[in-house]
Amino acid sequence: MLRKFTFLCCLVFFANQSKAQQYGLFNTKTMFDGFENTAQKTFVLDYSRQYASNFFLPNLTINANTDGNDQLFRLLARTGLSTTKDSLSQNKYLNMLLQSPNIYLFNYKIFKSYKYHKELGFSWQLRTDVEFNYNRESLDILDNYKTNPNYINIPLANSFNSFDRVQSYHQFSLSYRENYNKKLAFGAKISILSGILYNSLNLANTSFTFDPVQDEIRMALEGDFRTSFVEGSKLSNKSFLPSFKNPGLAISLGTTYTAKSGVFIMANIKDLGFIRWKETSLQQFDTPVRITSAAERDVAYLENRIAAEVANPKDDNTGFYSPTNARADFLISKSYGSYTPSLVLSKNLFFKGGDATLVNRFNFNNFSASINPSYNLANLFMLGAQGMYQTPNFEVYLGTNNAFNTIDQTKINKHNGAIGTGYNSFAVYAGIGIKFGYFVEHPQNSSYMPGLDEEETSFFRRLFSVFSKKK
């Protein structure tokens, strides 16, 4: 059942073509940078045109990491729902799988005003947040309990303990940024969410005992299972279309500061929000399971029995609120000619996970390349790489958050599952942006300037004036 639940969520992940953080794109003034880091500029005065869009050419992000048994996950990726028998040694089992797909289906930005450098943006994203945490022995027990002496007639406490959840949703956003003064800028993004699906499974205080004398298996299962769809048949292609049956809201806030010394600082709170799932089924269980004729049972039978006990949702139509995977980001950077190093610190607020990344970007006219070593709080060390071609009115980029492991995963095939070492990761992203319309020139150089209004005021100045003292 654990294997089936894992791959159900993985199939949802791949079916959506699906949020990883692309730290190499931070502080690049790309459209992705402007939407993810709301105070960032996207337009360059005197060079850029007034409008920017990806024209429904999706900015694709795919990210998945596993911590635990590398041999197991390569086997699963190579053969599908395979057994672990004869392929694993004891205490080398899948421990954690983190997936964060994010795809910008459409984005559009407008240069609104020369004064305060105001920018207004609209975007449509498809996002999935996935987290799996497994006991290292859970998969191997089901495959090898008959032959492994460590599993025979010995109570295995907490053998199936896990906490797993997946939620997928559409995100429609309105973003706005402006300069507060020459050094300081603020930005905000308000999002309406439309939930697609939600699943969570929590198993605690579990146990497994195989008694060959009595020819039976005794299991204890305690926990809860919640799902946004009662039967698998209800999950169809229509389920992935925006309907706002499961509505939600989220907000992002950001600021940037540029010092006289050239030091650039950026801070963000991203996608802080929730989704209300209108109809969910919650099953709570504390169930002893007894299986007779254990020697004759295969793995599929055991998994189906467990699934029947812990994943048997009821049509009780209970409402439920779930948080989005909000993050707090901080960046500090300074350019030295063609070389720009940036230190990025990022932490999930409600989910597990966080990163510390050093982005090393090298600029060559309109081309740039970056090497980005990163440490993840799941004890994963990664080395990202990115290439970009960027002009004031066009950008295209391709990168990965984990260059070596991503290359290893692409080499896995039916004949060789032993390629690569350590943990597993597959992380790629790509995007394109095009600007069009009038040039956003300085008013002294142009007869036309969008948003040129001597009476225009700053939104954030008016907002912060509430806290100023009246004279």
From TrEMBL:
Signal peptide start and end residues: 1-20
Keyword set includes Signal: yes
Keywords: Signal
Pfam families in the cross-refs: DUF5723
Highest taxon above the source species: Bacteria
Residue span(s) of domain DUF5723: 56-401
Protein name according to UniProt: DUF5723 domain-containing protein
Organism of this sequence: Pedobacter psychroterrae
